[in-house]
Amino acid sequence: MMESASKPSILILGAGELGNEVISAVWGHPRRNDNSLTVLLRPDPSDDPESNPATLARRDFISTLQRKGISTVRADIVNDTEADLAAVFSSYSTIIGCTGMTYPPGTQLKLAKALLAAKVDRYFPWQYGMDYDAIGRDSSQDLFTEQIDVRDLLRGQSETRWVIVSTGLFMSFLFEPAFGVVGEGMEVVTALGRWDNEITVTVPRDIGRAIAEVLFGDEDVQGVVYIAGETASYERIAGIVETVKKAKIKRELATVEQLDRELKADPDNGMKKYRAVFGEGKGVAWPMEKTFNVRRDMQFCGISQYLAQS
Predict the structure, then answer these.
(1) pTM for this entry
(2) Residue 49: CB partners within 8 Å, gap ≥ 6?
(3) Coil, strand or helix: which one is 165?
(4) CA 180, CA 173: separation in Å to the nearest integer?
């Protein structure tokens, strides 16, 4: 039988945009004390040439971590078996998931099962995003169903404590032209569903800060924790963009019916699935006063500040 590590030890899965912010916030938190930190990375490709810039960049990154006192471990989350991953996870008391956007269906559920088999004390799953409970299983975005499956699995057991940090969209995604809300050059703002529909957005740096604060400052917290850099209607977003640009912009409305038609014409398009969900306006926003960061008086980056810094 596997037992969790006796020494407080934290494993962060992934070191992408979010992972790097979580690493920084966790390692630099004043109440980290003697908690060790390890980052799980993918194995290097077997055919990766020594001179490959990506290989050199990975080595530089690992060296930087090691100089700080942060360890690394290698595992293939997609291809390793549940038992293989459980063997790796059993050495850690807390695991924070920071990777998953490009993984195939079933990966997050496999991770959760491996964590439970390893009897990890505390788990922060890769669920940074929407309120999947509110959205439900019948949404246009099938990826959300697996997130609900993970929640059901965690709620059905009592050995591993878990915290889901609901963040809304990453702030940068709001300004991704492919998402179709703020267009290229910020010339057009398109409301999804209705102009008074709201959307919650947060920058990765603040997500990292919130995770670290929950990790070290609220050890008894379990369940879903909501954070937000800002919750704003599409009308307000358009107003912010006009203020920043100091010019009038074009405003367009994509109705629920229009979004549904677009998805039916291209049912495998992931971005159109997202747009259809946001058009419904359910589970994609929450009041600022409900958030962990407001209750803790943590100053987060809002939309105006983000644009000013971009």
Answers:
(1) 0.93
(2) 55
(3) strand
(4) 10
C-beta of residue 151 within 8 angstroms of C-beta of residue 133: yes
How many residues appear in the chain? 310
Answer yes or no: are the C-beta atoms of 172 and 205 closer than 8 Å: no
Position 270, amino acid: G
Q: Are strands 94-97 and 9-13 parallel, antiparallel or unpaired?
A: parallel
- What's the distance, Cα to Cα, between the start and end of the chain in Å? 51
Contact between 227 and 300 (Cβ < 8 Å): yes
Beta pairing, strands 94-97 & 250-254: unpaired
Q: What angle do CA 242, 247, 249 make, to 5 degrees?
A: 65
Strand order across the beta sheet in which 94-97 lies: 71-74, 36-41, 9-13, 94-97, 122-124, 161-166, 223-226
Q: What is the pLDDT of residues 79-112, one digit of tens each?
A: 999 999 999 999 999 999 999 888 999 999 999 9
The packing angle between helices 270-280 and 143-155, to 10°, is 70
Comparing C-alpha atoms, which of 168, 248, 235 is closest to residue 202?
Answer: 168
Give the relative orientation of helices 256-265 and 270-280 as an angle to the nearest 10 degrees: 160
